[in-house]
Amino acid sequence: MKVEFIDKLGSDLAIVNAARVSMDKQHAEFDPDSDTRLLRYLAKEGHISPFFHAQLSLRITAPIFVARQLLRSTVGLSINEISRRYVDSAPEFHVPSVWRSRPDGNIKQGSGEAITEDTAYLDWVYRQGLYAARKAYDELLARGVAPEMARMILPQSMLTTWIWTGSLAAFARVCGLRLDSHAQSETREIAVQIAEICAEHFPHAWAALITEK
Fold first, then answer.
1. Does residue 121 surpass a pLDDT of 80?
2. Which fold does the domain 2-82+158-211 belong to in CATH?
């Protein structure tokens, strides 16, 4: 699973200048004191529109079950994903390093503690399933079945790739949801990488959005 930076538009300075245009003012350079205070004020008071002037494009590779959780967030984001209607290259699959138990009590979602017994057998069961799915997929293609139909046999652990472009505010919302301790671990792993890229390219604005949310 990985998140790759493609491109960006804007900067911390562009965001504060978007906010200051209402007063017909702008800064030529980012002022660490006054501009940081303004960013924190905007984020704290919910004045989010200036943060939409900063944009990022990312290329993300993750299992389908992770992608479907993340891509429920659509506001302010544009998505283009690889399609196995047209692609019949060898699929790749996510293999977990740890198996987690079901949570205790009546909790219906999430995971419990890491399973420490019979892990080799669990790995074997999982890999057998992947092997069977891959073998069936290859056989369907070999028999002339269209890729858009053969793909039906592929499991949710198959890796998919998409381009995700949107505003800093939109990515802050995604990370606010998926960095939560209750979010699925695999989804949180992608959110961590997104947050690191956002912080690298918009350090002051990102800190304001995350701290003051």
1. yes
2. Gyrase A; domain 2 (3.30.1360)
